Amino acid sequence: MGRFYVTTPIYYVNDVPHLGTAYTTIVADALRRFHLLQGDETFMLTGTDEHGLKIERQAKEQHLDPKAFTDKISARFMEAWPKLDIFPDRFIRTTDADHEAFVAELWKKIEANGDLYEGEYEGWYCVGCESLKTDKELEPGNLCPLHKTPVERVKEKSYFFRLEKWQKPLLDFYGRHPDFIRPESRRNEVLSFVESGLKDLSVSRTSFTWGIPVPGNPKHVMYVWFDALANYLTALNHGSLSRFWAPSGKVVHLVGKDILRFHAVFWPAFLLSAGYTEEQIPQVVFAHGFLTIDGQKMGKALRNAVDPLKIAHELGADVLRYHLLRAIAFGQDGDFDHAALIERYNADLGKNLGNLLSRVLGLCTKLANGKVPVFGERTALEDELFSRVKADLAMVRSAWESIEPHRALETTFAISSAANTYVDRAAPWAAAKTDPARAHTILAALLEVLAALSVAIWPAMPNKSNTMRAQLGLPPVEPRVGEDAFPTELGSLLKPGAPLAPAGPLFQTFDKNGTKAMVDKLVPRVEIPKTADNKTTESTDIEVSTTIAYDDFAKIDLRVGLVKSAERVPKKDKLLRLTMDLGEPSPRTLVAGLALSFQPAELVGRKVLVVANLAPRDFGSADFGSGKEKLVSHGMLLASGPSEDLRLATIDGDAAPGAKLK
Ligand code: MSP
Predict the structure, then answer these.
(1) What is the pLDDT of residues 79-115, one digit of tens each?
(2) I want to staple 405 with a disulfide (CB 3.0 to 4.6 A). Which of 318, 325, 393, 507 is the partner?
(3) For residues 212 and 104, is the Cβ–Cβ distance under 8 A?
């Protein structure tokens, strides 16, 4: 018996659960279920990351107190996971009192070891990543390469963590623990990053307050990543739960590739600095890839998120779980496609496994009175089947053990394919005519394989496992600590004479029309592009609009505009007043509904697309400090998205202000 502690990243509450975040959480749950099957004692942790500038800003935009805001979104995560049959042992929130207390203790330990000092930092900060960026990392236009949004210049007093000091110990540690960072390609990336030199890390902020106060200096709040990483220890900082931590437990952190550096560099450095030994550093940080839609990372930033709960509602959580675990090689990016989901559903679940079950149970009803038949003399066919299945089961086990769910399921379903081939070759319906005992042996062999499969699919599809087992006359899988229930041998999983209980198909397949109807139901409704001051924010299906003649289009004077200045409009929450260079002798004033999505300073210097010949629009008046001024927009800026998350239409390359679009 072992101990297995698996964690997901704690999710930022600026977004609700989507398929990308569901993915990691499903993998964590499946791994944990596999370990339960083996008789291990397990602990699974997930939760929400609630502090930091990003969250503070978003709460402000929604006119909510940060805690009220985080309560609201955190609940969405907490409620989502059980709907996907995920039951973590703890759902942690970084606003939990035990966490805040634990982080303060961790800080004090690191401080006492001389690894914190006060200083000032200046640099580019991506609020989306909650991380500083070097000049080298930025994309043209000062954009964060991950979020494609402008970074902000920050300069403030800060505590620094002596990360540089830990460079050598980290490299030694990686050398001694080659499995710490997986997969291999990611390990190499981290190694070269650390080898190229580490700089001390800013670990506190003074320009906002939504964070855990620095012990002894409450003007500072802790850097959100210092706070967040500690969650993995907070959860076990309760009595005997510490037994799940390394080395007495196997600790596996599942993370996306974008946050590997925090887990593989900063986290072990914090731990070593706080006095943890090398053996007390987690055994594995596994970085998986991104789920993409048409090659683009899925998520809020690109507004292409797929709702996992909708898929689970329509097809069942098992189907979604299976698809994500099987279709994407864990560690690599995977493009998600609804039609491919249904295709795999039909092929693997319906035609392969589902068919095998109903075929075998149908034959048992016909040829064996609906009972488990007696296993008679084995022929070469059964020997071949059983030795193949035995070898495959060993591979399934080792694939789960080595965190390769896609391989584990591929092999699980290869077992089902082998059994389908065996039915055709052994032809029990023909044997029944001349040798009923032989037909019974064939069916008994098939039932054994099905019984093994009903357990092997449990980590991925706990519900279907139960349904399958009920049809086989078996109780649901109920793992017990210390008992290895993962099947290794065939031959005695079922009792001869026990009643079988065939029911409807395990998976109802979709024909061509059914597939189309289901895909239509599942595909998210897409927003039609709209302008920054367009009030509509409702989602709607894409509509094919009526065409217009080129001459009509040519009437629109679309131009590149350079934002010279931007300011909020007092008492109008959504509006910004912009001065724009449109290549004319003097700048124009534009008023746009951008204030919920952008800080005025972020816009200055950006080149955007403007409808230059729109009739002036009157927004009333506002007092900017020197009496009432008329608020008239002389043109319209193009953008897309809801008013709290707008994306600006911009131009590629180096176009001059005033350049026309055609
Ligand atoms: N709060 C931090 C993590 C702190 S852990 C101590 C964070 N949160 S996040 O919500 O932005 O992202 C959480 C995880 O979701 C990351 O591992 C990220 O890679 C993952 N994903 C977000 N979008 C994803 C996809 N489209 N596909 C797969 N995973 C994705 O970072």
Answers:
(1) 999 999 999 999 999 999 999 999 999 999 999 999 9
(2) 325
(3) yes
